[in-house]
Design goal:
heterotrimer, A mainly alpha, B alpha+beta, C mainly alpha, B: alpha+beta, seven-stranded antiparallel beta sheet, 10 helices, elongated, C: mainly alpha, 2 domains, transmembrane helix (chain C)
Chain lengths: 302, 364, 287
Amino acid sequence: MNTKRGSLLPRLTSHPGKRVLPGFALSMGVSLLFVSLVLLLPISGLVVESAGMSWAQYWAVVSDERVVASYRVTLWAALIASLFNGVVGLLLAWVLVRYSFPGKRVVDALMDLPFALPTAVAGITLAALFAENGWYGQWLATLGIKVAFTPLGIIVAMSFTSLPFVVRTVQPVLEDLPVEDEEAAISMGASDWTVFRRILFPSLWPALMTGIALSFTRSLGEFGAIIFIAGNMPYVSGSDQPDDFHSTAGVRPCGGQRDCLGGAAGLADSAVRHQSVAGPLSAASARTLRSSHAAYVGSSCR
Amino acid sequence: MSITLEQINKSFGAFRALDDISLEIGDGQLVGLLGPSGSGKTTLLRIIAGLESADRGRILFQGEDVTGLHVRERRVGFVFQHYALFRHMTVAENIAFGLDVLPRKSRPVAGEIRRRVGELLEMVQLSHLAGRYPSQLSGGQKQRIALARALAMQPQILLLDEPFGALDARVRKDLRRWLRNLHDELHFTSVFVTHDQEEALELSDQVVVMSAGRIEQVDQPQALYARPDSRFVFDFLGHVNVFDGTLDGRLLQQGEAWIRLPENREGASSVQVYLRPHEVRLQLQPVAHAHLPLQVEAINLIGAEVRLELRPCGWEAAQLWEIGITHAEFNAWQPRRGDRCFAVPDVGHLFGAGNAAPETLYWG
Amino acid sequence: MQRTSVHRVGEQRWVRWTLICLALGLTLLLLVMPLLLIFVEAFSGGAQTWWANLTDYYTLRAIGLTLLVAALTVPLNLLFGVFLAWLVTRFEFPGRKLLITLIDIPFAVSPVVAGLLYLLLYGSNGWLGGWLMQHDVQLMFAWPGIVMVTVFVTCPFVARELIPLMQQQGREEEEAAVVLGASGWQLFRRVTLPNIQWALLYGVVLTNARAVGEFGAVSVVSGNIRGETNTLPLHIELLYQDYNAVGAFTSASLLAVIALVTLLVKSFVEWRQARQRAPLHEQQEQG
């Protein structure tokens, strides 16, 4: 094999009908059919609708008052949730990578629970936990803290569903940290905290940032877990009923009633509006995490 | 089964991998394709196998045109550079694979397949590893299994892509010897690719030296070493000492150095003389036919001889000269860095301006 | 301060155990408790109530619909994933990189938006809606729409598991098999499949978990018709909004079990893959 070009690179032969490995035509056919039908066709809807809008229309759609209000809550909540996850996630990753203790494998597996658990289940569970008579809610109430039906609830739901992002992003980086750097620093007399602050943390920082960013993106798009704890009302097009907190939830037309669609324009508006907020971030995050076990991680919202 | 290649051309985009290659490989020969990376040797091998198709040209096996034949139909044996053993199958299953996938009509019964696998394992002396998995084998063992797997189909043509490249020196030597013996015993036509000239020269009946998609020279190993046809082949087959100079009649000059050629030459004024390390001696005084002052730069004791690296004094060469002296000479002379001496050529190869084959020069 | 054999940060006993306890505590609070709650609530009326809730007519219909969706989605995406991975890692052709990027579309689009886009396309007011109505075909607000949207949302999983693995494994084994005379099917069954089986299993399990649990996209196209177009997650929502917490948690417990199985399979697959890599370290270059 021409080692200059690397032995992993598939070769194009100049007689296309003569490819060495079989199945080109079949797999090409199946893939193109599927991609066009399932992926491209629906997406073209978004593209066409967006393209068909003038800037003024676009701006009008995106900056609708009620919606902007809900954006603000969403963005703040997502930010706080991700920062919280950053701290907690770092701690969990650290402990999982650095220490052994009984039950470690179970804890490690549990880190993926928020991904594996359907968001509706997460939603009702968190709502029940933090309700005023819930396990957590009741003694939080004695401290005067109310979680259910408040922005705090949204933060909790966002934090739960996107915690694994930080943990799974930081873990591999932690595992690969060279031992020698630490050993050298400690042997020179530096304290633990100094070594952590000046040697370890700078190496971890990019991964941590990535994890936080992914957590943020996921939180922006979260739907299922939030509507239960935030007690959200679906946005009914054409009526005056505001959606309470969450922009995404505000997108569900008429609570799903069959005949109340508000027309294709209403749908398109909703789609465009939502996509322009979370879309670019989601696309970027999908690109960032191409590794296999991050396939789970890449599922942006439920 | 003989292999004939007629005007094979292959490009990858703008890169010309093979430029009009024509080659004849006789039945039962063991031929080495030798060249540096990028010379096209692996591409050529894969084209013979059918793992690549040429843009133009024909391939014939025993006179029959197989250019249009899919690799599956060509029934050649191929040994990959990194063995390509099936990692999820045992050694025995690997070797049996070719037989297992035969169409029902031509497939031998299970017992027969087992027997053949046993025979092959005996042949490569690895019967005790039949139940192991490739990840449990060493490099040399994997190589032999890969070979056994290819031979299980009793191919008339065996192709090997840098078969010993990933192994260390001692293992390589053993396997080389072993492959040669196998070839002599089983009489298949064999073509292998290597960048190691020692390997090519030791193993092959014929060596095909390639460079930049072209064939530089095809010859038997001794002839290739003794009479290289081009600068490239010279350079590739080991170190060469080059004297670059201006020719005037019989005298070839550069700076303070000169060589008197055995005969007059007309024509080209700027020529080069290539001298193999064993074709030139070292003396403390110059001789009548050459004045090549050198200064000892480094002394390397390499096993049977002492190799001196020498810097030209008063003239220039692109690379340091290397000349070997015997241990006896070394002990007598006791050279040190900085010592001066003179090179005395016995045999030389004269290159003119173009790419024509060199002329061999002999000094009495 | 004494520093005898400590050569990494955080190795002292008190630091170590503090952090471990902290981490365990957080895990307990954030992950274990919610899990526990699901089952406590589900069984709060006793095992009989749990069973009754589970076998309630609408719950059974929801389970049935969810199973149907999974039964259609998983094989479809399995096939697609395998074909796409094969195409993209074993051949070179113009547009290959673009194709790989296209697979990420479901990640770039929020599931709710995905649902909307499908409505836009196939809904009665949508582009194809008219044509569909003429032929008396209803896709949206019926189970076909749910399946379609679930397929959309879960299609990348298998492919994204297989592609990096198959790229890393390279084509050499398959080329060797072809040289030895294997046909396409023999090649796939004997050489490729064994090499990708664990990644494939994991991709299938992921697809299944997501297909079963998808909420956002499905809620948009479902129409929420009790007994007809409610999947299990939607059914849970319905029960919860009806203040039937125990019922909701009963269904939730079912989904929680699937989630735990998913985690188990993931652990198992990772363990297998780690084991496969290990022997290579012990290799030496001997004849």
